[in-house]
């Protein structure tokens, strides 16, 4: 469950990401130098990872903690391995 | 220089990415399960990497080839190392 | 705490990795083609990740589960974020 | 072709890596704390990447440059994409 504080922070980051994607579109329309385009793509990846990090930490503190204390631990082990080796790349 | 064919392909991908970012925003507003949100973020990363791959290949075939044949090789070695170890992550 | 079953599996993997590192050394001594050397390096990374994955899963099932149930949750949140975003790369 | 200077540097790094792998083996035998084991694995990955980086730069300056100037450019584009998106991970 995404707590309200994380929610507003994540939404603010997403509006920045939308601006970055529009900026990337403009660079491609204007046929900017490839390495500058790749730098913009890399910045969007980093901003997205910022959102991901906060969602992961929120997940650890809420769902995983409840799950290991009283719920279905196996499900959470499986999901955590997926987060570590796929979803956080 | 981004050739026209790559340009239109990349712009189509970007419109899909914009839709995915809007979808992510909706999931966060609706406080969806964290792992589903992380899966959406991972899908956006993958779509962005698709754009990046095409820009990198275009760069190899145009700027790098011209640069190594008659231009400033040192500049291209440096940029290529940056692409391999930073911009393609 | 590394359970005995994981321990023997990890030690078997490590003896394979030692062989791969010796193989890499031989390729460099014999000045093999760079891309073949890089392929060998990539194989060693993959084998090492195999060991890492098992240690991470073992950690989740033992230390993290005990820690979140009755121990110092904050310490484990911090360590898990370090695993996700640094130690598993 | 791996030039002699890179060769000796890479071989020195490999002897350090062998020591690190032996250290990792010892930690697993002695059932050290999982996060410490993962930190050691991460250090070996970093040391391996150091070797990889030098081989990639050497490859750019020798094989790729010769290849794009007078050889089979298509083969090198394909290999470079493999380096960027697989072998450098």
From TrEMBL, chains A, B, C, D:
Q: Which domain of life is it from?
A: Bacteria
| Gene3D superfamilies (alphabetical) | Metal-sensitive repressor, helix protomer
Matches recorded under InterPro entries: Metal_Tscrpt_repr, Metal_Tscrpt_repr_sf
What the record says about family reads: Belongs to the FrmR/RcnR family.
Q: Return the PANTHER family for the record.
A: COPPER-SENSING TRANSCRIPTIONAL REPRESSOR RICR (PTHR33677:SF3), TRANSCRIPTIONAL REPRESSOR FRMR-RELATED (PTHR33677)
- Quote the protein name from its UniProt record: Metal-sensitive transcriptional regulator
| Phylogenetic placement of the source organism | Bacteria, Pseudomonadati, Planctomycetota, Phycisphaerae, Phycisphaerales
